[in-house]
Amino acid sequence: MTTVLHLDCSANRSAESVTRQLSRQFADRWRTGDYRYRDLAADPVPPIDTAYCQLGRRSEQLGTVPIADVDQLVQTRAEAEAWALTKPLIDEIRAASVLLIGTPLYNYSLPASLKAWIDRITFPGAFADDVLRDTQVVVIAATGGAYGPGAPRDGWDHQEPYLHAYFTNFGVRPENLTYIRAELTLTGLVDRLAHLKPLAEHSLAKARAQVLSGVALRQNAAAER
Q1: What is the distance between the alpha carbons of residues 29 and 209, in angstroms, rounded to a whole number?
Q2: What pLDDT, in 10s, does the model give residues 4-23?
Q3: Contacts of 192 (CB under 8 A, 6+ apart)
Q4: pLDDT tens digits, 166-179
């Protein structure tokens, strides 16, 4: 049975959000089992703090304590609170067979809400047992401008390479990581980009087709055969 963990990160929680539209379409069409949803903009994950760091360092000093036993390392109320925030998030991603992330590109990188979630789940030993090896990660992104080959800002998108490096470093197989992107989403709002509207419409249509066809799930199923 498929277990989907769906994260939305856009600060724009209105119907205008392209990433929220596309990630919802993907979830509605392809979820077949357990489903967990987190809106990281509406219910943000607190940034890690001193207590989190001290607990993590204590675990590493002992040779990285298994996640199930970390609560035995807690020494202060602040550490107990930090772990109470952290462990449920780790449990969610460890249990997920599909991680679906809807995220805009903010200032050439990740939204702060997504980075805070990543920082918190990356507790020492969280993924030490190769638990993410078979996890399918689907990132549905949107950019106001264009950052692909040949664009004036080609190479300025630091979100996609970051997420690729992060997830593959922690065990996700490269063939299980899919990135779907709609570009030029600001063409309808910014006059100087109006001439690019046909390209924007094409990009959005392509992204929506990938979502509706389940391109990520098909690719990964083929890779497993």
Answers
A1: 12
A2: 999 999 999 999 999 999 99
A3: none
A4: 999 999 999 999 99
State residue 35 phi and psi, 5-degree precision. Answer: -140, 130
- Given the DSSP bridges, would you call strands 34-39 and 98-104 parallel, antiparallel or unpaired? unpaired
pLDDT-derived band at 224, boundaries 50, 70, 90: very low
Tokens of 218: 């098909």
| Cβ-proximal residues to 105 (8 Å cutoff; 6+ apart), any chain | 141, 142, 143, 144, 147, 157, 159
| Residue 5 near residue 99 (C-beta atoms within 8 A) | yes
113-146 per-position pLDDT tens digit? 999 999 999 999 999 989 999 999 999 999 999 9
Distance CA 52, CA 119 (A): 10
Strands 136-142 and 34-39: unpaired
CB–CB of 182/204 below 8 Å? Answer: yes
User: Cβ atoms within 10 A of the Cβ of 116, count?
Assistant: 18
- Determine the Cα–Cα distance for residues 193 and 186; give it in Å rounded to an integer: 7
Phi-psi region of 214 (alpha: psi -120 to 50; beta: other; left: phi over 0): left
d(CA 164, CA 166): 6
CATH 1.10.1200.10 at 3-224, yes or no: no
Tally of helices (H runs) and strands (E runs) in the chain: 7, 5
| Of the candidates 125, 128, 223, the residue with the CA atom closest to the CA atom of residue 176 | 223
Q: Can you tell me the distance from the alpha carbon of 44 to that of 13, in angstroms, rounded to the nearest whole number?
A: 13
